[in-house]
Amino acid sequence: MQERIKVIEQRIQAACEACGRPRASVGLIAVSKTKPVEMIEEAYAAGLRCFGENRAQEIVAKKPLLPEDIRWHFIGNLQKNKIKYLLGQVELIHSVNGEDLALEIERQAEKRDLTQDILVEVNIAGEASKQGAALSQARVLIALCDELPRLNLRGLMAVAPLSENPEDSRPYFRQLRILWEETKPLLSHSPAFDQLSMGMSGDFEVAIEEGATMIRVGSALFGAREQKLPNEKREMPVIK
Ligand SMILES: *Cc1c(COP(=O)(O)O)cnc(C)c1O
Predict the structure, then answer these.
(1) Is 228 a member of any domain?
(2) How many angstroms separate the most distant Cα atoms in the chain?
(3) pTM of this prediction?
(4) What's the CA-to-centroid distance between 132 and ligand 1, angstroms?
(5) CB 3.0 to 4.6 Å from 207: which of 181, 212, 227, 236, for a disulfide?
């Protein structure tokens, strides 16, 4: 694990140097989904502090077992009935992908009297298999999130289509960056619209070159994930 982290860190630094960006301008989110608490502890011991999960129930289960200064990032498809488990618990929800979800986060954040940092997820390649707002609807969703007072809109997120060749991701990352830059001056209530979450194990160097401020790296840090059984039941604690 230590060795893997070192290698990733060197690759991030090399990518930053190659395009003249400071290392501090790129945040590393260690995607720990499906991985045990022990591996997160190891990564924490090696200095990592930001961890990404794609199921609310996994954050709920892992968070109390781990150091309090871990900053949790939610990167998965969020069902409305799981919002309550994340509000005030995660630093950033990367995956606001529709108006209904945005409005429901707003409603629940208002009820709890808190503000939630979020990104709008864009389905940048228009893939049927992917989450995210269609490019044609992204501007409307961004404008809505900008208006909602309990949502602190921090930027945009996307997942490039699966490919063996990282260069294939480049046009999509570039498109997301352009949308991010074009949208910025149109916002009225989002003074910190400064995050671009893109790039994963297979393509994070290209993402850094294209302007990512956060990369989400799972398998390159923690090893390959096993497939989950589709109907696995998980216990959820009750939150009122
Ligand atoms: C799983 C996941 C990642 C990490 O993927 P790797 O290829 O393992 O690095 C990044 N982003 C999202 C949204 C994910 O679901």
Answers:
(1) no
(2) 50
(3) 0.94
(4) 14
(5) 212
